[in-house]
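Quick check before the chapter quiz. The format below is the same one you will see on the exam, so make sure you can read both the input and the output lines.
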Amino acid sequence: MLQVGRGRAGQPPPGPAGVDSRSCDPAGGGSSPGAGARAARRQTMAALLKSLLAASEKAACIAQLCRQEEALFSLLIEEKRGADKNKKFLQDFKTLADVLIQEVIKHDVGQKFPELQDHIRGEESNKFENGLGETVVVQVCPTQQETAALLEKVLDRKQAAAELLAAAIHQEVVLSDPALDDVAVTISTESMAVWIDPIDSTNQYIRGRGDVLPVDGIYPSGLRSALVLIGVYNRHSGEPVLGIINEPFFKEKLPARRWQSKYHWGISYGGTRLSSLSRPQLRTSPRVVLSSNEKVALQEALTPLYGQQLCFASGAGYKMLCVALGLADAYVLSEGSTFKWDSCGPHAILLALGGGMVDLSEALKSWQAGQRKPLPELTYNKPVEGALGAERWANQGGLVAYIHREHLEAVMATLAAAANTF
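Here is the expected output.
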């Protein structure tokens, strides 16, 4: 059993800090019929939130295990190619770690909310094909032993690794966070859907740098930017309503060298705004966080507004978290390199804190046309027309994530003045 530590939650502003959880140890581990049916379909937001948070903690545990246990770590860092690659090895382990986390979240949440089961989507396909033309569908089986046997097929009969993962997948997660019981919001889950990014910033996760130091509170790279992102949205309107960001590598516990996770959540539903985070105050010296490969032209366009306060970090989800935490006032991205699974969860948290996330391209058009309020926020229910594959779900127009409206307007005014340069 994985026991998750206590924390507090509240309504912003002000609000309490996020919740720390314990490090992972896989070994620990009366109405009428019609009314009753309708009640079953109208779940409390607290129940959905608890289910998703528990799933995110299990996901964090799996991510931690893949770095902490030798039987798994050796697979994570090794990728044989060419003549050295076993044709029976179905897929590189880097992708399998993502898929396992995704399938665990889909399984655990789908069991408690069957009406959501067909509306939980992730970044990865769960079908693996090896060089011999054999296909295995990775899924959570009814028993731990069956899951281990399935994983052995994917892992080229590596029994120890398969058993470690199966134990983590089938462990029970118990949340000990009394503040969650105070989330008294009812939601019609039949109209909701879920986006999952199982490990955002996968490259930083693989590289595994746990010794990167922060610059003014922001980690430019390393394990701290590898996050589990879960977002719930309204299937009809496309609006995000609930978000979770889990930091699997929030703190390293020495000398055991075990990682401790931390989660944050936010709800923006109807007139309700709740979050485990406090709303950050306005900065006297504003800062923006960007991708390290952001266009130089956009960096130059933002210089009159932010001067030397241009910060750089890996991982779209982590940069959005930096805004939610108040480490930066805005995250600006000029290209369509993020996807719905990246932004849905963080977007809901930002909305809960009084901010949001706009489509940069559409917002610039609105701004230049004289329409300042509201600016078009990202939505999550419709694919991009004419696009194929993952690009169907790209945030093609770029984005601006923000907490305070003042910063959004300052960014829009600055970029509108330089719109022809980037």
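If your answer matched, good. Residues 6-19, 27-41, 79-91 have pLDDT under 50 and may be disordered.
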